[in-house]
């Protein structure tokens, strides 16, 4: 009978880890067995039992403080039990004896949880003011290597929907969380458990998006949210399914809270079923697996030769090369018929995918071409030589030179390149193509014809913490925050839509033009949030109407070659809903390098980040 | 027929990874297939082929530099091929054009190997002077994240056995290696491949021990070393088996070098067979798995409560508690018969194993006792309370107090404790027991009665590098080198045998005695080596003749509770064979802490390490 949920392709499912919330069982071992019997993976429960009356303040030694540690093995405490603190603890009470008693009890329970080695401690937040709680938790996290804290709060506060509360009385639980984690300096061992609201109190999509930018560890689902479907089986309303689907990207866990004491396997099975029903990975999901929010240094293809691994990954992106081939075809068709053998030059061909695309176009159009491949990397040339010998023959002229110094015997009708980085110009495509256009005919074309970078403000303490924890021993913290990173962004909130920043067009015959740039952009924050960085994308016009884009607005479908780029702020900035975020970006250059600087001007001013390219630059030298 | 090697327990085997050395195959893909067909796991081979004549100095672009990268997938280059450099490269030649040509070729081959993404590059050292080679390799390692270098040298140099060479002409290949890695600051991505010598030129046991302290990645075995056994099958002589057995602890790989071009599966099968035949793990091997050379901070049981995980691990050490129980039994038998109910106090009982041992003794001897358990950790007391309630009843009086302040109603005939750390006194057993002896009768005894620490000089660049790479962001490098670590030592060389350092006896009724200590010790280095640290052990007399020891000389068999402790030197010291190593150690104390300082006086002087306990101390405060 439980099989009604067992549909869908077993290979395409998200494993869903479920926990059972059992506030205060008579016996933890039996409670754990009960949860296991119905398919749950772990239990959230109090580790002290209220039947042990304790007066921790007045008497050091009044009796047992909780369950004995020997009822479970360490490996069980360490994997299967999330410890809930006694809910009545309130260290932020203004009543002296409540505050003092609470503090003593909190320290004792934290100590006991640490003694047991549980993987996480769960604390319910019930109000906005948690300053004393935050202080004690921050102290404990810093003085231990392993302790994790899960803060549990409602996804939305009921006051938001109350007609009795004035605008100033309406609580936003995100503020509770934000205050707490700011006090604890965005500590990565602080996680969130969000209570799903009932159907009448669903938060707005942008509020949900903001939660998706937080370190959510679990969703807490009260079984009162379930409704019966036409088969009489409990299911969640569509709106809850949509929320769960969004959080699946964060690999959250699911905690079931129920009053039932009978068979509760149907809730667990249903969550598992959602893992199949709602999981719709895109084509590149398998390729990206494990790279979520992982920091990569942007490539420096001029100063460091790309290696065979990078070439191989790029060459797998069929969408990109098909689009390029279409662009080459359109461009070749536009070369006047009186030019008998148009000259095409692939500059920076790597191991040759665009050389192959050019040969394909010549073949398709039955039009002979003269084709140059101009590559500076001797190890890529080694491969190209092999392909000339065994595949292409004398159809390709291979040149092992930097395109900025090479003097070809011919001038080109079409120069083809793929020199774009995650931010468009950040791998020095402008400088390289300016150097190469010496051998482009005055009416010749460049593929790409132009490219534009885009930025948007984001909130992601995940990335903030990744930068901190990946700091190499020989770099300062500031250096690491003045450096952009290429990231497959998952755990973030986009505060506003991207806007266009810098554009470069080729060829560019204006001898007075420069590749330096400066621009101010303004963004709107619709709700309170934390600005931690700017994310960068780009799009490019290859030829005519043919474009490639990494901008989410019109991202080229299934293209896998580029992740977004992140420009961090050295210090997160608290933003009020309704504020304007104004940011300035520079692209600067000197004789030997190019770099970016950035600076927030509003709602608060920051110092200029990466002045003089002191922390990050792209070298022009081969 | 190959089955003659297939004996032994399949569960008790060391997996043996074997590679095949194929200097310069016509075709790498076929060579790889050949190796796979005969069961080998990887291939060592040149990535450039001599048939590609190259003059890298004079002409930038003369033709292909090596095999094309596309013959293998990146994942194959990255896992299956170790790249050998062209053997004729000699950047340390004094002939100008050889030096220049070699340097250009070396840079090209290193670049190509990096391009291919091979896991390691193998270089044969042929002489002691490799300064220019070391410089280039060090530069390349520092400028890449992944490059690993395997330096191949003979385990022993033939000149050692030549009657034609005078003493000054005899080469020690360890010096070749030691010079090289000193130039590269003990870089952890530098590994060693050692060529096994023939039976006539086996190095001495202490030379082999010194190699065992090095980062040996593989043993290179020429099939000419094999002899035929009585079944006509190739096997290695006993002396080679003994060497291989020793290196198995380092998880080295085995590279077969052969002139055969036929079926060579028997060598690979034989190595696999040795993985079963020679693997003799001790009882605790499974427990220790994965902890090899892993740094742990020494416990601070006074300032930080031990957690349930630590208690559970310790309680599993049956040998220790059986020995303790024997000691308690002997001590109780020695208490005069006229004392009707001897008073036993277990101070720091944790979760109660020594309480249980005391009850066992009382039962065995049919002698009633009065038993106190005095424990400061409230979470351990919580467990003890449960045991009192459910196991022991009123046979045990439980006190939740620090033994240094508790005032009992009785005085004890026997005080029993297990407060010893890896260095004996380093968890402040002397201070705790001095505090507790207030409630010991004047003729009462302490179990343990005494304990002594031992130290020995060692060489281990593995530990040196572990300390460097485990540095927390908020600590200086010096702080990390002024701190002792508890380590399951594997990859190290013991330069001389341990000698006794500090002894403490209990009870100690001499009111003028102090727990501060100072001692100088001298050790002999029989051969050239690198002093990187001192290792510490301890032994303890529990009662009479009953002892426990972690000193390798008389280590209590199968006892698992303690690993050695390491006192690092901030800078490794080069030691000549025949030198005396003189070291001074202090145990110092102030009102609130205890610490060690140490200093080498000979053969060279160092600054005093950890002055005033600035980097490491043990706090006395609960």
Unreliable spans of chain A are: 1-10
Secondary-structure arrangement, i.e. CATH architecture of the largest domain in chain A:
Alpha-Beta Barrel
Q: Considering DSSP H and I runs of 4 or more, what fraction of the residues of chain A is helical?
A: 25-40%
Distance between the termini of chain A: 68 Å
Which chains have the largest interface?
Answer: A-B, 41 and 41 residues
- Contiguous helical run count of chain A: 16
Share of residues in strands of chain A: 25-35%
According to CATH, the homologous superfamily of the largest domain in chain A is: Divalent-metal-dependent TIM barrel enzymes
Number of strands of chain A: 27
Q: How large, in whole angstroms, is the Cα Rg of chain A?
A: 30 Å
Structural class of chain A: alpha/beta
CATH topology of the largest domain in chain A: TIM Barrel
Name of the CATH first level of the largest domain in chain A: Alpha Beta
Main sheet properties of chain A = 8 strands, parallel, barrel
What is the multimeric organization of the chains shown?
homodimer
The largest beta-sheet of chain A arranges its strands as 1-2-3-4-5-6-7-10
Average pLDDT, all residues of chain A:
92
Number of separate structural domains of chain A: 3
